[in-house]
Write a structure and sequence with these properties.
Two copies of one chain form a homodimer.
Chain A (H helix, E strand, L loop, with lengths): L3 H9 L9 H12 L5 E5 L2 E5 L7 E7 L12 E3 L2 E3 L3 H15 L8 E7 L10 H8 L8 E4 L8 E2 L3 E10 L3 E2 L9 H14 L4 E4 L2 E4 L1 E10 L4 E2 L2 E10 L5 H11 L11 E8 L9 H10 L4 E2 L6 H6 L4 E3 L14 E3 H15 L1
Parallel strand pairs in A: 3-6, 3-7, 7-18, 8-17
Antiparallel strand pairs in A: 1-2, 2-6, 4-5, 5-19, 8-18, 9-15, 9-16, 10-14, 11-12, 13-15
Helix pairs in contact in A: 1-3, 3-9, 7-9
Chain lengths: ~350, ~350
């Protein structure tokens, strides 16, 4: 059996900050090309390897090659059965498991597509997966997909949508010594922020997974000069919405939460800056149900947005499952343990055997 | 009698945006030096002319030479008995009246000090009056002072203090999908803004003048990234406080208004960025009482900060009195009328005759 802690350490040792995945892609290609049961293609810095055994079902297993920039944790460091370093948990541990299974499973129960893609950790529009969807969608075809993001050894089902909205409030400028001749736009912001902070939240239960919605102010701006009643102020909100809403209904909901705090007829604006819908759990799909069963643990909702949504948008039910603690992603203390890696391999091996 | 509308138009025609008062100062010096009852000195771009007649009292009449930058109103334009243009009201009308009286009153009832100073409309530390107080305080000595700022033909007594305060709130960063692991500093700002907006105000009655205090948010800032619960947010407040408070008691008062919305032991900060105390009305002083009587109108409180406070800080009671509407200061529609100019001259002439 491959020493997964050592092979993850090897991958951590190959820097692959977004846009710089070439060397790691080279290594992945060479390992996969050594397997004659795989048809391996490289598209840019994305690598896809597929079996073609004529099975009834095709399962896609996907993971991103890139990491966020290191935070004094560029080097892999093994201490006992724990590996520290950027990407240890997000998601070179997952890549190590994928590479091990891809190169040791010549006759899986379903046809498999192993997808290693670039530029996940940066702006969505630069994603290597989008590059494949637009240029080579045939390579991503499948009946279900598993994203190897860190999930702590259980299935994190679906994912929430995410939307950024900006509310800009108008006022009327005046001298601060005579504020009654104007209208303070920053003072108006107080009501909006209170409404956001006081929102009691909503949790949607889908396939037994609880998707807890979150509404957070992420930026605030306003002010003209120190003696001027400001005529403009704005707040940017991030709404994480359950996959039973789409962008349109999510926007309508936030408008309802904030009803009465802004008035578009008065010059205020409410603008959706961007939105990415989530994906429902789809745990009724046989391949995903089998994945859950193999973990012997209840699934839970994925709270962050992942490329599960990108597969779902193309009609492919998907779930997140990978080694490592999701709370450690992008954290200077990022690490993964031998046990986490081996349990993940065990579950996936049982699924595809 | 001098045509005051024409002479104000002449002064408006000489650009004197702050730091560029030299040409106007030249003209003022030449007019004053022509009067043998005046001892005229130029200090930088400040001009001071004094009588020395051995009178019991000395009255200082002061006005600033500079204007704010023009807003498409650089040229003087006379329409009937109204003059339009930058500085018409703030305060070249006042300067025209001062120049006329200075050059036509060889034997006033009190000794007079005519002070024309530079750089009032910009940062306090650059003020020409401060240059005189620090380098030639002898030139500003007097028993009382009148500042020729626009006051609409009545006495605007004393002035309010002004203070800028910045309250910075701490939070704990977290992913917006898991805000419960952090603390949103922008959400905390909502309570502060509500408290400020809801403050019912306070009015102090001094010498029959009502000083209405104002507390206004003038800037707000916060935010890290669109998927991050922000760990810092701040608001800057401008507090206009009545002259029965000094900076220390004003600060204590704002702390009391906001009590419970911030916690310095938790890392929040409450900082006074700058403060300038106001000045009490001092209307019991014989020269200022005589000024009020000459206007035949009740005085009112000056709501903005003026150099009345700078005289008061040096022990000289002072009041604001000049032609023009104070609400038009710095306004593109700034203007002054012949009647306003003549009434101001009449009042001051009666006072110093």
């Amino acid at each position: 059996m491959t020493d997964l802690l050592a092979s993850t350490a090897e991958l951590v040792g190959i820097p692959s900050v977004s846009h710089d995945e070439g060397v790691l892609a080279d290594l992945v290609v060479s390992r996969l090309k050594a397997c004659d049961w795989l048809e391996t293609e490289r598209v840019g810095d994305n690598v896809v390897a597929r079996t073609s055994l004529g099975r009834d079902q095709r399962l896609v297993l996907a993971g991103h090659l890139d990491t966020v920039p290191p935070a004094n944790n560029a080097d892999a460091r093994v201490d006992g059965d724990t590996l520290w370093g950027v990407g240890a948990s997000d998601m070179k541990g997952g890549l190590a498991v994928m590479l091990d299974l891809a190169t040791t499973t010549p006759s899986p129960s379903a046809d498999l597509t192993w997808c290693f893609y670039a530029r996940e950790e940066i702006g969505r529009e630069e994603s290597g997966l989008l590059e494949l969807w637009s240029g080579r969608p045939d390579l991503l075809a499948g009946d279900a997909a598993i994203l190897g993001e860190p999930t702590d050894g259980l299935v994190e089902a679906g994912c929430q949508g995410t939307m950024r909205l900006k509310i800009s409030l108008r006022g009327v400028r005046a001298h601060t010594a005579r504020p009654f001749t104007g209208r303070n736009a920053i003072h108006r912001l107080g009501v909006v922020l209170q409404r956001v902070a006081d929102w009691e939240g909503r949790t949607a239960a889908l396939d037994g997974c609880a998707f807890a919605e979150q509404l957070q102010a992420v930026a605030v701006d306003g002010g003209v000069a120190s003696n001027v009643v400001p005529d403009a102020a704005s707040v940017t909100l991030n709404f994480r919405y359950a996959p039973d809403r789409d962008a349109a209904t999510a926007e309508a909901f936030v408008r309802e939460v904030l009803a009465g705090t802004f008035d578009t007829e008065d010059g205020d604006t409410f603008v959706v800056l961007d939105a990415a819908d989530g994906a429902p759990p789809s745990l009724a799909h046989p391949l995903l149900a089998a994945l859950v069963a193999a973990t012997k643990t209840d699934p839970r909702a994925k709270v962050g947005w992942t490329d599960v949504a990108s597969f779902w948008a193309h009609g492919v039910p998907a779930a997140n499952f990978g080694p490592g603690d999701p709370l450690l992603a992008h954290h200077p203390d990022e690490h993964v343990t031998r046990d986490q890696l081996e349990r993940t391999r065990e579950v996936l091996a049982a699924l595809i055997a």
